[in-house]
Amino acid sequence: MNSVQPVKVFSTSGSIELAQDICNALQTRLPKEFQPGGRLILSNLRFEKFDNECILPHIENVRDHLVVIIYTHAPQIHTQLFELFHIIDAVINADAKEIMLVFAYFEYSRSDKKDQPHISVMSRFLADIFNNLGIKKKLILDPHDDHILQYFWPTADGISAVLLLTDYLKREFLTPELKEKSVVVFSDHGAADRYREVAHILNLPTAYIDKQRIGGKTISTEVIGNVVQKHCLLFDDEILTGGTGIGDADILLNTGALSVIFSAIHAILTSGKLPTPELIQKLENSPVKKFIITDSVPVKQKLVGTTKFKVIPVANLLAEAIKRNILGESLTQLYLPENVSLYR
Fold first, then answer.
1. Which residue in 331, 16, 344, 339 sits closest to 159, CA to CA?
2. Distance CA 343, CA 141 (A)
3. pTM of the entire structure?
4. 324-341 pLDDT, tens per residue?
5. Cα-trace Rg, the chain
6. CA 324 – CA 300 distance, rounded (Å)
7. Mean pLDDT for the stretch of residues 197-214
8. Domains assigned to the chain
9. Using one digit for the tens of pLDDT, what is the confidence trace for 224-251?
10. Is the dihedral of CA 229, 259, 161, 195 positive or negative?
11. How far apart, in whole angstroms, are the C-alpha atoms of residue 97 and residue 120?
12. Are the CB atoms for 21 and 311 separated by under 8 Å?
């Protein structure tokens, strides 16, 4: 075990609910000597806002502490990012011993490569900022692509909620009768590469939807694999507006599938064209039988009164990973299906 380093937890304003859940989960995981006062709670943080719209954070004492900062995607994202920068600067100036950044959702994760002229690669740019600040401990939950982890120095630790989704499907959906008629479907070839373990864990055949980028738009062309008279368990890392998922469900059902359950880790559930209530209603009325998602980003208020959504909490997973990082324990154990009970 590492030498005792008292821990304090902060979060940006959009991440408070998740951060509080993580603190609650850490209370039973982290040895008491690491918890100031014997009970870990979210640390005091207040932002003062000036007439010119600049902000100033006021934090409690963190001298010689390990400071854990929780961040996830929440409106307004650029305000949230600037809050994060302010918190980090305040913590460094207050002489914290070490900082751990925990990204339940790493912002600009999809801006991860230069795939067209004259654009930024913002995920790499953000990583460079944190590298230049000398922050060594980083945890990222399911980045859009694992190569993003390599943008950090030292390399960021990646953890995944995919086992939480497969665990739920295995326990709550895949009866012996349904398992014989089910297939794991990936939204594209990239998702097939990222989540190939899902089919192995569930012991199911696979298929994927072939997609091509035409005129700046991604077009679904055909289903590769057998989905006729099958219940399709569709997997992807993120659901934004749900348009792609609904389109994929239409293709699968038109190909002869019996039903579609769509599982995604990050549920942004936002559209620039539809108010959020209308977007959620569109998903409720869609041919997708069930949406299985996590609360890696704030979604609970958006889904009040819905029937098609099952939300799997990630606070226990993040808390377990934070605890293991602090105590010098293996994170690899969290990738083993038999260990999902550690953070279910």
1. 331
2. 14
3. 0.95
4. 999 999 999 999 999 999
5. 21
6. 28
7. 89
8. 7-161+315-342 (3.40.50.2020), 162-312 (3.40.50.2020)
9. 999 999 999 999 999 999 999 999 999 9
10. positive
11. 33
12. no
Q: What are the tokens at 300?
A: 């609970």
β-strand pairing of 55-59 with 45-49: antiparallel
SS (H, E, C) the chain: CCCCCCEEEEECHHHHHHHHHHHHHHHCCCCHHHCHHHCCCECCEEEEECCCCCEEEEECCCCCCEEEEEECCCCCHHHHHHHHHHHHHHHHHCCCCEEEEEECCCCCCCCCCCCCCCCCCHHHHHHHHHHHCCCCEEEEECCCCHHHHHHCCCCCEEECCHHHHHHHHHHHCCCHHHHCCEEEEECCHHHHHHCHHHHHHHCCCEEEEEEEEECCEEEEEEEECCCCCCEEEEEEEEECCCHHHHHHHHHHHHHCCCEEEEEEEEECCCCCCCCHHHHHHHHHCCCCCEEEEECCCCCHHHHCCCCCEEEECCHHHHHHHHHHHHHCCCCHHHHCHHHHHHCC
Amino acid identity, position 339: N
Unique residue bearing structure tokens 């559209």: 271
Side chain identity at residue 55, one-letter code: I
Question: Tokens 């801006």 correspond to what residue?
Answer: 111
The phi-psi region of residue 49 (left if phi > 0; otherwise alpha if psi is between -120 and 50; otherwise beta) is beta
Q: Is the pLDDT of residue 1 over 50?
A: no
pLDDT of residue 115: 86
Residue 214 has pLDDT above 70, yes or no: no
The confidence score (pLDDT) of residue 221 equals: 72
Structure confidence by residue, pLDDT tens digits, 169-192? 999 999 999 999 999 999 888 888
The amino acid present at 53, given as its one-letter code, is: E
- Per-residue model confidence (pLDDT) at position 146: 93
Residue whose tokens read 């996830």: 72
